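thought: fold this chain, then report.
action: predict
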Amino acid sequence: MSPHADATSVLTAWRPPSPEQEALRQAYLGFLAAREDACLRSCEPGHLTASALVLDATGERTLLTLHPRVGRWLQLGGHCEESDGTLAGAALREAEEESGIRGLRVEPTPIHLDVHPITCSLGLPTRHFDVRFLVRAPVGARPTRSAESVDLQWWPLDAMPSNVDDLHPLVEAALARLR
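observation:
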């Protein structure tokens, strides 16, 4: 399966928890219907990305990366590759690459959607249509910072750094899924 076909299938089946997330789901599906290249970073108007909110085995801490270009703490994730069969697989691949942790487990159903403007690898202003997944780390997981990060740390969900305001809806969605 291609990321495009998977994204269409997964987002068609997903039932978001709020009217705002439903509106984004509909927008993503419209974008996917209009653009066969919607999952490729070469799609200049924007492209789907896959990210992972990595929680430790207790579900009390999340692994965040200090992104070098953005200068803020973010969840792990990035662009889909042509070799990715699914969006959840792309989120898992990115989480493994950026954390160095093996044995991560991804839930196949998205927990949150977010569209944000960015200048990414094309060097042009574009948008990321981010599909966000919950990923669980094994007991005792120790991350190793990759070259894609300035820093990589576990943060208690109730004491995250101050510059992650836009991650709070993602964390709330993850906690709702765990209940």
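thought: worth noting. The CA atoms of residues 9 and 71 lie 34 Å apart.
final: tokens above.
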